[in-house]
Write a structure and sequence with these properties.
about 140 residues, mainly alpha, two-stranded antiparallel ribbon, 7 helices
């Protein structure tokens, strides 16, 4: 179980690490906090993790999440964002908090209530059924 917890933390840290500030050649790049694909993907990872933690009938597909993280890294690197900026972002609590706030807003807008675990399950089941990015990183137990 400890290895799963470490893997989850590593995956979340990696996802959040992709939200770097200006990169090499930043004049041509959108700042990552404004880059839609990256932000939506990061938010999806956090939402999936929240569903997994609060719904007893849904678990994470860790290998799929890892592959999605690698795809997102390649996407960011191919767009021109640098590894040094990605690494620097890992320690940026403001960006981590911003992504978590986006995820909380998504959860709330989809009827999730923190005091009702079933609401996390309903959203997770709906995301799995529609094969969204959130849904492909989850599985029903």
């Amino acid at each position: 179980m400890k290895s799963h917890a470490r893997l989850r933390r590593s995956l979340l840290a990696g996802l959040l690490a992709l939200l770097v500030a200006p990169a090499v050649g930043a004049s041509a790049l959108t700042p990552l906090p404004e880059e839609t694909h990256i932000n939506q993907s990061l938010m999806a990872g956090v939402v999936g993790d929240e569903i997994r933690k609060h719904c007893p009938t849904i678990s994470a597909r860790m290998l799929v999440a890892w592959f999605k993280l690698e795809e997102l890294k390649r996407y960011a690197l191919n767009k021109g964002y640098g590894r040094a900026e990605i690494k620097a972002f890992i320690k940026n609590p403001e960006q981590k908090a911003r992504v978590k706030a986006m995820a909380q807003a998504y959860l709330q807008s989809h009827g999730v209530r923190p005091d009702e675990p079933g609401s996390y399950c309903r959203l997770g089941e709906a995301e799995i059924a529609r094969k969204s990015l959130i849904g492909v990183m989850l599985r029903a137990k």
